[in-house]
Design brief:
The complex is a heterodimer of chains A (330) and B (513). Chain A contains 14 helices and four strands. By secondary structure, chain A is mostly helical. In chain A, helix 3 crosses helix 9 and helix 9 packs across helix 11. Chain B folds into three domains: 237 residues, P-loop containing nucleotide triphosphate hydrolases (Rossmann fold), CATH 3.40.50; 176 residues, 3-Layer(aba) Sandwich (Rossmann fold); 68 residues, no CATH class. Chain B is globular. In chain B, helix 5 runs parallel beside helix 6, helix 14 crosses helix 15 and helix 15 packs across helix 16. Chain B is an alpha/beta fold and 513 residues long. The chains are: A mainly alpha (330), B alpha/beta (513).
């Protein structure tokens, strides 16, 4: 038997790499939805509409990037919404007490990763389901919000208001907020880490087959703890961005956000069982969510719950798509 | 064969676990440029020896020297770094990653912390070229067959400048052509001076590829032999430590006459049963007391035939009639109800429930047949379990032991007992002897003969042609998911003719329509 016969032993040679199919499907979906918007509403073609989608969803994007790391290993992080809220609350409370903005930033950015690290340790060392551990983290962080204050705390700090109001625009009058730039920076760093560092590749390996990853000598435990820490850090950054956006900290903000985030990641083509997906897909997933919201706002007659209904339908369709590709993959 | 000094020497190795002496004063040596087979029954200490060598276990007594230096590895990683790499039976790679990445992950060439993908792919291509493999290194590993994945695992193993390559049952999931590929690569690596330690259950493979054989029995060394000086039957005798009475008696039996049975009405009549993508429609009659063998390569559709017949997969074509009735078998519950039992090929995933005890595993099918609302009385359970533990000589003979603590062969017997308790009229056995030692294998073969003499019909599926020929009255041959022939097992039928049928797909005219 010659080596050529081995090459022909491949299951099927696709014209288009299978792992790119979900991402491309999302891209097509996004373009179709944007096309519908432009054809239905004259104002939709204004570039600022796209920019506003980014401005309104910058924090969601950052959190979704963190979630992408977790889901790529085959895990899940339900605590992100609560950690976002807790970060915003802690920042607002500290600023109210007159602490300097720099110190507040550092503290706020440490809380999320610390909680993520602890949850990662619980998941790894005690072999507990990520679902349960991060559910506990979710309740804990949400409880801490109400513990800090029962009601909303406004932020009047100069740095925060400056970050909130700063507009970076072009002469035509279109602009984005600083949060959008920060979100883009996070996306670029995450994409680089996943594609070009050993940590990033270990994430994919663990998602593909944790047992094999262990036997190939990869640092499975360290990587698993690290992804929850990364997700915590992203949630913390998301929390800061949200407090820039709302200029307040409220105990019941971002309730259920973890589910939007998971939906965005999955619609963006990352497989829930791990091992396959891209940060770029997550960006598309967040944009899909944002454009649906914008379309429903433009319509004006539809209840905002339609957003949820459409997202539900899309999520279902994308999970089916993944499953079909997965079956072919075997 | 080289006459140089051994690259690896293990001297006086002993290893005990609580209550068990797994290895006792075992010597083993491995020369550069040889394929050395490590043989023994299940539980002889092969795995323990390999694990001691690669540092999975510590040693109680004895020394290991590698290239003249005494070594004691802390684990497989350290062993691999020192040049002793292992490729396991299950392929431990990530199918979602590319071929190139699977070879290099964990030790990718980097610049300033960034993986140099161009370099990774270039080196992967070079390494695979050395193994004479032409693969798209950027394609996901999962798009290649198991055999190719196994060879990628070998590529990963030898990249770490391996002096010693351990192949632990690498062929159990490969078909004949793929095994030939693997052997070609093994010979090539041997000629490059790598020492290969080869563990397998297949005696033919040992004689096809090994230069030297070391036999273990009950944790002790039996001896080291040159392959050409050790005939196959003496190897088996050395492995099981007794004369081959049982096996030979089976061998000497005349071909089993079939004429008597095929005259009457068939017990099971399969008409044009098929399922798209699994098996092309086939027809088959099985009479009471008849053993029908199912031969064919791995992936030719043998298991699919069994699953369709049992109703585990839904047929989209044709029907199965039992006792001449038109009642078809559509679900496993119906099948069990009509007296069909199915021993799955995949005993870990589909058969045995490892946490349950021997007793619970045995009565599972009978309880299912009775319905869960009518528990089997404890005394009846004990009676049945006791009888089959004795009849199949299941060891240890403790019905309350969790099944996972039993060896592979004994697990297989428990599974068999589960179906025998239901007293089926047709028993489907899918690879009942794979991966179990030769003693247990003989016992299971004898049992099949007894059962069919007692009037039970058996559909016997096995990758080992000799076994199929020894036991069957008739042999149905599968090729590319089609039943291409049904051959009476008379004096003219031998392994060669079955192989030819598999290879050529001729004899089509003999398919019963």
């Amino acid at each position: 038997m010659s080596s050529t016969s081995l090459t022909s032993g491949r299951a099927w040679r696709p014209t288009l790499p299978r792992r790119h199919v979900p991402v491309l499907a999302t891209l097509v979906l996004l373009l179709v939805m944007y096309g519908i918007g432009v054809s239905q509403y004259r104002a939709f073609s204004n570039v600022q509409v796209v920019f506003n989608v980014f401005i309104d969803n910058g924090f969601l994007l950052v959190v979704a990037v963190g979630m992408t790391f977790v889901i790529l290993t085959g895990g899940i992080d339900l605590s992100v919404g609560s950690v976002v809220a807790m970060t915003a609350m802690v920042s607002a409370a500290m600023l109210r007490d007159g602490l300097p903005a720099g110190l507040v930033l550092v503290v706020a950015l440490l809380i999320g990763p610390t909680l993520g690290f602890l949850m990662g340790c619980a998941i790894h060392f005690f072999e507990i389901q990520p679902f349960i551990v991060t559910l506990a983290g979710m309740f804990f962080a949400r409880g801490m919000c109400t513990f800090i204050s029962g009601g909303s705390i406004p932020i009047t700090d100069g740095f925060w208001t400056a970050m909130s109001q700063e507009r970076i625009g072009n002469p035509a009058g279109n602009f984005v907020s600083i949060s959008v730039l920060i979100a883009f920076a996070v996306v670029l760093v995450a994409a680089y880490v996943l594609a070009y560092t050993r940590f990033g590749r270990n994430v994919y390996a663990i998602g593909g087959n944790p047992q094999s990853a262990l036997l190939m000598g990869l640092p499975v435990g360290r990587t698993r703890i690290a992804v929850y820490t990364v997700s915590g850090l992203c949630s913390a950054i998301g929390g800061i961005l949200l407090s820039f956006y709302t200029l307040s900290g409220a105990p019941l903000i971002a309730v259920g956000m973890e589910l939007d985030v998971i939906a965005a990641v999955v619609i963006g083509g990352t497989v829930l069982t791990g091992g396959s997906g891209y940060v770029f897909g997550t960006v598309l997933g967040v944009l899909v969510l944002g454009v649906i919201q914008t379309l429903i706002t433009f319509d004006g007659t539809l209840n905002s719950w339609w957003t949820k209904i459409v997202i539900g339908g899309l999520l279902f369709a994308f999970i089916l798509l993944q499953r079909l590709i997965g079956i072919r993959f075997k | 064969m080289t006459d140089s000094r051994p690259v690896l020497t293990m001297t006086g190795i002993s290893k005990s676990f609580p209550g068990v002496r797994a290895l006792h004063d075992v010597d083993f040596r491995l020369f550069p440029g040889e394929v050395h087979a490590l043989m023994g029954e299940n539980g002889a200490g092969k795995s323990t020896l390999i694990k001691v060598l690669t540092g999975v276990y510590g040693i109680d007594e004895g020394t290991i020297t590698l290239a003249g230096d005494q070594v004691a590895f802390s684990g497989p990683m350290q062993a691999a770094a020192a040049g002793v790499s292992t490729v396991y039976q299950e392929i431990n790679l990530c199918t979602n990653l590319s071929v190139a990445e699977n070879i290099f992950i964990g030790r990718e060439p980097r610049r300033l912390g960034a993986v140099r993908w161009g370099e990774v792919r270039r080196r992967a291509r070079a390494l695979l070229a050395r193994l004479d493999l032409d693969l798209d290194v950027a394609a996901p590993l999962g798009s290649y067959s198991l055999a190719v994945q196994q060879m990628v695992a070998i590529a990963r193993a030898i990249d770490v400048r391996a002096q010693v390559l351990i192949l632990d049952e690498p062929t159990s999931s490969l078909d004949a052509g793929e095994v030939a590929q693997l052997f070609r690569i093994m010979r090539q690596l041997r000629d490059e001076g790598i020492a290969i330690l080869f563990v397998t259950h297949f005696l033919d493979q040992v004689y096809a590829v090994a230069d030297r054989i070391t036999v273990l029995r009950n944790g002790a060394l039996v001896g080291e032999y040159l392959t050409e000086e050790l005939p196959q039957f003496s190897l088996v005798e050395k492995m099981i430590g007794k004369e081959l009475d049982a096996l030979e008696r089976l061998d000497e039996q005349p071909k089993r006459a079939v004429a008597a049975q095929s005259g009457g009405a068939p017990l099971v009549e399969v008409a044009e049963l098929g399922r798209k993508g699994a098996v092309a429609p086939f027809s088959l009659r099985i009479h009471a007391g008849e053993v029908v063998g199912l031969a064919g390569l791995l992936g030719s559709g043998r298991t699919e035939v069994a699953r369709l017949l049992f109703g585990a997969d839904r047929a989209d074509h044709g029907q199965v009639a039992v006792d001449g009735g038109r009642a078809s078998l559509r679900t496993p519950v119906q099948a069990i109800d009509r007296g069909v039992g199915f021993c799955s090929e995949n005993r870990r995933a589909e058969g045995i429930v490892p946490e349950l005890s021997v007793r619970e595993n045995m009565i599972l099918a009978m309880q299912a047949a009775r319905g869960w609302l009518r528990p089997i009385p404890r005394r009846r359970q004990d009676e049945l379990v006791d009888r089959y533990v004795k009849a199949l000589s299941i060891r240890p003979a403790n019905p309350d032991l969790p099944v996972r603590n039993l060896s592979g062969g004994n697990q297989q017997k428990v599974l068999l007992a589960r179906w025998l308790i239901t007293e089926p009229r047709l028993l489907i056995l899918d690879e009942p002897t794979r991966g179990i030692d030769i003693g247990a294998k003989t016992e299971i073969q004898k049992l099949v003969v007894q059962l069919s003499d007692g009037g039970m019909a058996v559909l016997f599926i096995s990758a080992e042609l000799e076994e199929v020929l020894r036991l069957s009255h008739r042999v149905a041959v599968m090729r590319d998911r089609t039943m291409v022939a049904q051959l009476d097992n008379d004096d003219s039928l031998d392994a060669d003719r079955v192989m030819q049928t598999i290879a050529s797909g001729t004899n089509r005219e003999e398919v019963t329509r």
